Amino acid sequence: MRLPLVAGNWKMHKDHREAVDLVRELDGLLAGLEGVEVAVCPPFTALSDVARTLKESRSRIVLGAQDVYPAPEGAYTGEISPRMLKALEVHYVIVGHSERREIIGEGDQLVAAKARAVLEEGMVPILCVGETLEEREEGKAESKVRGQLESALAAWSSDEASALVIAYEPIWAIGTGKTATPEDAQEMNSFIRGWLAERFGQDTASGVRILYGGSVKPDNAAELMAMPDVDGALVGGASLKAADFAAIARFRE
Ligand code: PGA
Q: Which of 152, 167, 179, 241 has its CA 20 to 30 A from that of 6?
């Protein structure tokens, strides 16, 4: 059985004080929740304070980061290394989010290097893949996602891949209020698992958690999560309100 993962991607929201308030409130609302792993990915400037807050309150919320640079250290102005994240007890690192691919211009090679660097530092990448509306309408959604998986995981062994988390995030559903139907999400997530099985074997594929992301909200979380290949959610907008995010994490209730 795959433990569902509900991860909040705070994007460029919340300064370090607001972040601490949000995670405290969230922690209270999640008291007693079993059988779901909950993670938050605050901006870099808030990681240290959120890490301390989680530790002090012995919270079960897991810390994630939104990005990383694939080098141990060096002259990379403005970048953050895997080791710096690891030192803050970051566990998950989002890699290849469509906003970084589309707005910042990150290519597949850089995404692959980031995923690798996260793995090598002993953290878990949440590798994001997904198609644009145009690609979907042209029937190219699966080939786009396959290409992203092939390039990001080219150098991975089956053992390494078993630790991975993948997030299917159709770009047309991110921040738009347009959620993919549970059937759309299931279809792509099952395609991704099929690809993993071909590439890494059925055992590995069965263990990898494949999330859905894109306008997940309290009122659609349960039906998405009910799909057999949807193992959780990567949540943007709705993760900024503790009550909404907690309601998503409590999708079974
Ligand atoms: P959204 O963002 O929930 O605001 O659509 C999801 C994401 O980008 O991870």
A: 152
Q: How far is CA 53 from the centre of its chain?
A: 22
Torsion angle of the four alpha carbons 166, 168, 149, 105, in this order, in degrees rounded to the nearest 10: -110
Paired tokens of 189: 């997530």
130 CB within 6 A, ligand 1: no
Q: What is the mean pLDDT of the chain?
A: 97
27-42 pLDDT, tens digit per residue, is 999 999 999 999 999 9
The mean pLDDT of 86-106, rounded to a whole number, is: 97
Tokens 């240290």 belong to: 48
Q: Return the best residue to mutate from 215, 220, 240, 244 for the ligand 1 pocket (most ligand atoms within 8 A of CB).
A: 215
User: What is the Cα–Cα distance from 131 to 133, expressed in whole angstroms?
Assistant: 7
Run of H or E including 9? strand 5-9
Number of alpha carbons in the 13 Å side-chain half-sphere of residue 36: 23
